[in-house]
Structure to design on (942 residues):
């Protein structure tokens, strides 16, 4: 424990706890507006086709139908990076792509109307493989993207957004190497982050140029800004963010749904709700990026990495929401994970005829390290290096540098994570369980156990801009004006707790306004583990600013300087004369409020880190892999809310995390472009009955972040585990198995028991 | 409401509206369901359609949106409510099948008179046994039904009963702590 605080580091109930446990919390589909209609989407049965003709006349005549829209009826607003995705188009690009939109009085009528729309398609050849798509004769998805390659730009991250890692002299590095490993590795099982709440939106036009949108999202202010630009800067966009029923990044890419609701509401003249079914969620919404590397790694016998080179191919599906941004962050995170003086890693983002891949917890880094670590392990194996020692030696240290997503060189001010890694190894029993590469820990009949380890860090803990207002009221309460959603991290409550600690009033005396970005200052959103450091800094500064103003008002009344004052529980007192005091009410009067303001500017010099240890049991007769236990080791500087942090760390197995190496995958049929696992029976997920043991080792070495010395960590927790599982399975069965997920067929094939 | 001797809807299950009319089943008739202790009457064909699920009726007709629809396919457990003491998937249950039945939803879990939270709800708050909270009402109702049947289940029994509840944030560990704590307090 770094420092004893009154509220920080203590478990306090979530502010929305009573609403969640009584069913009062309002999620998007719980909202019902007067005269609200229901939207439905007619979806393409073809992976790639031109719409030759489309007849909506029968659908329009169905009683209860209020609007039917095709590509001819909608504005040419474009989404994606660069803007290229239309709301509706004359060409469909994946099975499930939007062909027409219907708004009707009930969902049943809307669904019935879809069946009355006649479409004549001209099927086109489709392409699904990331490399096939770049061949000269491959089907082209967009005329503006030759060879299906997206331009390597991510303007939001600046003009020089990182797309490749070019450092030093890779040729020279390979000459210095004792061992060179090379190969192709893929992380292409495109798991679905699959929040329990399906994505959705509601739109209502309040005037000819004013639209009000209800969202399930992670960044309502940023969504509002994005929508304002997407709608040609001609429409005033109001946003109300609902309780978010899980996102894991994915709902940041809800814009196609939001725009569908917006155009339907405009056409129908009534509010329209459009929530996806789970089948649509599984087959047409955001999956994890497809990731493949053709790479080479040079290594010294002592584990020093001398060169990393290769091509990183990223399959983004039918459009790119912000995939190049994920590539930028992924390239940054790779450098945090492994120190190397010579890099020549080039990336390519490619579109193909399947649903989109995009923003999922891990944001590029998970996808890159899951293919990079197998390359590194091949070299470690030859050098007989313990992977824990390797990661400990090579993870970023204070004073070392890296190119971050903005393309700038940053020097790390971070703490040394070695201690957390050592403590994690000790808790896991690594030294006892590690027997060497491709050696099982135990053998018991057909059951063999093996262990593996992975690591990831992210310097996005200080990404982007946050602003906060904090209003003090004379009745010893405060109101936080901040536009962030509650998507499960507890951040709305934790940020109130930070303000409470500054103001020394209990967290329950601090409220946070309902989520409405028109009432609060600029805020990027609670993404990328930025809540604790970036948003927290803005909140702390706003609270400090308000407190300073309070002291300036109180100082003359206490005949002391503002610097000599302190406050606790609504009483202002002179630090060395606690008997000289007045309550806030007396200092402020009842007709005054005080407003503090705080702003955070981006800082990429700090990062977080999670090392994940896993132990698996493999049945070499059946090929079944069981995840026995997991240890996550991290250093967060200072815990803000212990149960919320534990919950986030336990999330390592869910939301397209560790289980995407054990059994999770979206099965895709290349014969017809369909996702076969479009329901929650066929899409596999872990149940209560199959939980592994999870232990979280959390150190608190103060970070040079803000007054509480903390950084966030939730986002990356899903990332280090998948490659660790494959390492553990390989060790258990004595054969290298680096194909995600390690399903029984792959295990038996690796063992030579069935044909692969 | 007085329970009917035979439920025409059960006889006519899966039969189209027209066929039902041909078979002599009236187009419109009343059904009664007790929801959170309150008797509710519905006219089938007007207030509810024969194909409406209980989840739909609770949420859209009665405005009880605490019951969540996740998959609408009987696979995720989010829509779990208690009918006659047993947990059921309200997305897989037709409203017309519930005639004469008593149903408790998340809105009825707290004491209706005092408003005091059920010990399970309090334990979920005390243990932060949720993250996004979307699956929480279903899990609470599943756990409540279990404790109604078995006041001291083992951890394995709790896990097996809750195995049908999908939670993606992975709040399972805190849920198990909360349910165990609620049992201990009994």
């Amino acid at each position: 424990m770094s420092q004893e605080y009154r509220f920080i580091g203590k478990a306090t109930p979530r502010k929305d706890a009573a609403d969640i446990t009584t069913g009062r919390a309002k999620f998007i589909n719980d909202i019902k507006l007067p005269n609200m209609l229901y939207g439905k989407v007619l979806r393409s049965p073809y992976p790639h086709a031109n719409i030759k003709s489309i007849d909506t006349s029968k659908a329009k005549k169905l009683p209860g139908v209020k609007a039917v829209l095709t590509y001819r009826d909608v504005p040419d607003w474009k989404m994606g990076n660069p803007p290229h995705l239309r709301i509706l188009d004359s060409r469909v690009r994946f099975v499930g792509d939007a062909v027409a939109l219907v708004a009707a009085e009930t969902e049943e009528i809307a669904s019935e109307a879809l069946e009355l729309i006649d479409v004549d398609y001209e099927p086109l050849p489709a392409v699904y493989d990331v490399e096939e798509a770049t061949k000269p004769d491959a089907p082209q998805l967009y005329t503006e993207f030759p060879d299906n390659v997206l331009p390597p730009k991510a303007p939001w991250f600046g003009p020089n957004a990182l797309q490749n890692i070019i450092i030093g002299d890779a040729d020279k590095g390979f000459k210095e190497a004792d061992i060179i490993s090379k190969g192709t590795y893929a992380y292409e099982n495109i798991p679905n982050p699959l929040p329990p709440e399906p994505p959705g939106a509601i739109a209502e036009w309040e005037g000819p140029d004013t639209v009000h949108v209800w969202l399930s999202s992670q960044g309502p202010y940023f969504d509002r800004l994005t929508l304002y630009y997407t709608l040609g800067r001609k429409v005033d966009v109001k946003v109300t963010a609902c309780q978010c029923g899980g996102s894991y990044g994915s709902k940041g890419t809800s814009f196609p749904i939001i725009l569908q609701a917006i155009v339907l509401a405009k056409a129908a003249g009534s509010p329209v709700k459009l929530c996806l079914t789970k089948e649509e969620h599984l087959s047409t919404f955001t999956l994890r990026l497809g990731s493949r590397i053709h790479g080479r790694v040079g290594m010294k016998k002592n584990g020093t990495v001398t060169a990393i080179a290769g091509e990183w191919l990223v399959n983004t599906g039918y459009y790119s929401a912000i995939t190049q941004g994920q590539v930028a962050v992924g390239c940054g995170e790779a450098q945090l994970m492994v120190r190397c003086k010579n890099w020549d890693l080039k990336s390519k983002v490619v579109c193909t005829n399947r649903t989109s891949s995009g923003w999922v917890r891990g944001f590029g880094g998970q996808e890159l390290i899951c293919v990079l670590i197998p390359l590194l392990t091949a070299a470690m194996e030859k050098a007989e290096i313990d992977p824990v020692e390797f990661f400990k030696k090579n993870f970023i240290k204070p004073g070392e540098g890296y190119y971050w997503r903005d393309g700038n060189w940053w020097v790390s001010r971070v703490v040394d994570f070695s201690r957390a890694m050592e403590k994690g190894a000790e808790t896991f029993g690594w030294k006892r369980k590690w027997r060497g590469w491709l050696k099982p820990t135990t053998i018991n009949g057909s059951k063999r156990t093996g262990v593996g380890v992975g690591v990831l860090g992210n310097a996005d803990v200080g990404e982007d801009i946050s602003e906060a207002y904090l209003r003090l009221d004379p009745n010893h309460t405060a109101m936080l004006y901040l536009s962030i959603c509650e998507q499960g991290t507890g951040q709305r409550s934790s940020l109130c707790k930070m303000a409470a600690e500054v103001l020394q009033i209990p967290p329950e005396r601090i409220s946070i306004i309902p989520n409405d970005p028109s009432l609060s200052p600029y805020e990027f959103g609670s993404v990328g583990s930025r809540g604790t450091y970036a948003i927290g800094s803005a909140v702390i500064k706003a609270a400090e600013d308000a407190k300073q103003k309070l002291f300036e008002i109180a100082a003359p009344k206490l005949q002391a300087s503002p610097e000599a004052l302190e406050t606790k529980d609504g009483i202002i007192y002179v630090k060395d004369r606690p008997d000289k005091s007045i309550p806030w009410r007396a200092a402020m009067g009842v007709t005054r409020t005080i407003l503090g303001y705080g702003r955070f500017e981006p800082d990429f010099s700090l990062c977080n880190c999670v090392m994940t240890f896993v132990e698996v049991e493999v049945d070499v007769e059946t090929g079944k892999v069981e995840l026995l236990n997991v240890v996550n080791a991290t250093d967060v500087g200072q815990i803000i809310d212990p149960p919320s942090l534990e919950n986030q760390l336990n999330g390592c197995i869910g939301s397209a995390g560790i289980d995407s190496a054990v059994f999770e995958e979206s099965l895709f049929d290349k014969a017809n472009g369909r996702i076969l696992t479009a329901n929650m029976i066929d899409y596999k997920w872990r149940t209560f009955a199959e939980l592994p043991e999870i232990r979280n080792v959390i150190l608190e070495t103060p970070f040079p972040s803000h007054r509480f010395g903390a950084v966030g960590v939730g986002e990356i927790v899903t990332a280090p585990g998948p490659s660790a599982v494959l390492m553990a399975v390989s060790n258990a069965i004595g054969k290298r198995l680096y194909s995600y997920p390690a399903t029984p067929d792959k295990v038996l094939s690796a063992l030579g028991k069935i044909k692969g | 409401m007085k329970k009917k001797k035979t439920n025409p809807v059960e006889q006519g299950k899966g039969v189209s509206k027209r066929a039902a009319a041909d078979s002599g089943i009236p187009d419109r008739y009343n059904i009664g369901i007790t929801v959170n202790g309150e008797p509710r009457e519905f006219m089938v064909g007007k207030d509810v359609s024969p194909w409406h699920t209980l989840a739909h009726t609770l949420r859209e007709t009665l405005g009880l949106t605490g019951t969540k629809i996740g998959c609408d396919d009987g696979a995720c457990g989010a829509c779990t409510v208690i009918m006659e003491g047993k947990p059921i998937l309200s997305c897989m249950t037709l409203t017309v099948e519930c005639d004469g039945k008593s149903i408790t939803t998340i809105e009825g879990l707290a004491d209706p008179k005092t408003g005091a939270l059920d010990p399970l709800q309090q334990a979920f708050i005390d243990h932060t046994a949720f993250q996004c909270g979307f699956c929480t009402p279903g899990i609470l109702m599943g756990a409540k039904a279990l404790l109604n049947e078995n006041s001291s289940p083992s951890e394995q029994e709790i896990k097996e009963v809750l195995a049908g509840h999908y939670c993606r944030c992975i709040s399972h560990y805190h849920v198990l702590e909360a349910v165990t704590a609620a049992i201990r307090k009994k």
